[in-house]
Design brief:
By secondary structure, this protein is α/β, with parallel strands linked by helices. The protein is 41% helix and 17% strand. Keywords: Hydrolase.
Length: 489
Amino acid sequence: MLSSSPKVTLPVLPEIIDGLPNISGWEKEVNLVVSRNEPVFLPTTNLRLEDISAGFAIALHMHQPTIPAGSNGEFQSNLQYMFEHPQEGDNHNAEPFAYCYSRMGDFIPELVANGCNPRVMLDYSGNLLWGLGQMGRGDILDNLKRITIDPTYQPYVEWLGTMWSHAVVPSTPIPDIKLHIQAWQHYFAAIFGWDALARVKGFSPPEMHLPNHPDTFFEFVKALKECGYKWLMVQEHSVESLTGQSLQYKHLPHRLVARNSKGETLSITALIKTQGSDTKLVGQMQPYYEAKTLSRQQLGKISVPPIVTQIGDGENGGVMMNEFPSAFKKAWYEMSGTGTVGMTGTEYLELIEAAGCTPDDYPTCQPIGQHQIWERVADNYTPEAVANAIEELKQTNSNFHMDGASWTNNLSWVKGYENVLTPMNQLSALFHQKVEMKEGVTQESRYREALMNNLLLQTSCFRYWGQGVWTDYAREIYRRGEASLKSNF
């Protein structure tokens, strides 16, 4: 077990407290664990950088929203609802979905036992993990624990952090961004333990939705760094060079620069997710086959293998359900430990940095559209100058917006959803108005309930499926959240 010093042992965290998911209360301990800087994969990797011509990294994104749809209106996982209402839509796929959440716990041990060298990155929303526990699906969680906790399989699997309830960052109230990140870390540590949390160094934003408003993006990067994250996965077309061009070196890590309206800057390493969101890219192992066409590139003074990075839904659609298992296994049986290899994101970064690369060597990028802002602002960094530049650009360019960019361009999480966004922002404001952040309050059940309602209302699903039952769910969560805050604080 991790300890902060020889005299201090970290507590074993409960998953559920007073019927609520453990998403707060141990902020100091979480910060202590995630702030550790020792290498994660370097001590155990069986890859040698000099033997690799190109690499690829694949991530599987998994999520089910929490909805107020139990028999008496209780919160439950949408997966549970699917099991209970098999005649609706594609709910007959509930068990195949459940198996998809579990199957990496079978695939990785099988491949390792057969002499293969597999790699996978896993991105599970916090409320999916909570929902699996609510449903009594310990079988799924135990399968995931096997490849997360057992040292035999740790070198092959990387977990990515995310927002606890799958909130898209650009439209999340800024004060809540860090709360989502920390809530996920709390719940992950409660399920998988402190050692597992210490190994989570990459972040996967829901829907690959990257903020491009300077202040929102700056606060996002600031929160990531404060929460111990070393790198972020970003969609290729959601970023641009510092001169406003498309990326030239999309298979190399980038230094993603955040500048706010006061001119303050931060940066974080980014791995570039290429192409679109089609699950066929992961389902048919396209990153592997693309990597086979690539060769080493120069990064600073070091020759490094490029890396093809891709993420897709791990359960959604026929390709992922039916074609992915055989394609995944076939690729690993084909590979040796040299030439084209699979890697995890942190493993790749640790290998190239051990060879002498530093983030200062990486090509730079920034969120899409920011070059136009900084051109107008020049060196006059003030909130007013940035706001004026944004307004001018909106007036002169109908395509310019500050809604961020995600892995799909044909959907908006803002337009047409004022009836969700307005209550969402109102509940967040009420939460921060009512809750006095004094010592110990985050361990109180009334705080945890208020936080849970606030974060759940920000789930992207309530702004994805159009008006109807999903926006009704949002209104009900708002009602409960408001009532809880007014009666408990």
